[in-house]
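Appendix B. One record, verbatim.
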Amino acid sequence: MYHDDEEHHARCLECGDEIGYGRTDRKFCSLSCKNRYNNRKNQDSRRTKLKVLNALNRNHEILDGLLKMGMTEMNISDLKHLGFDTDYMTSCYRTRGHTEFCCFDIRYHVTPTRITSIFRMKRNLSAKDE
């Protein structure tokens, strides 16, 4: 499996340098090239995850702020002006003829023009949480 004669012409996937030693199936000339390649390759996935988490956090902060002001509903257009994005929620399901959405620990219903019935779910404490 090791190859050290003159016919080995593999190239590093990151920097393009010739890999003239080691296993014939090596893809990188060094650990730093391997790390740079994988970091670059996974960058889009990390960006997408960060975008989604930021949107969820923003939505939660807005809903939490409404609850702190004693508000349990608001026009969707007003929420959007605050930065709320209706495309992002942590879960949704149908109950008794309507769809209920969640943003972490806050639940709400959506009509065509309003978000209504905003409430915080009670957290069940287990013995280890107390």
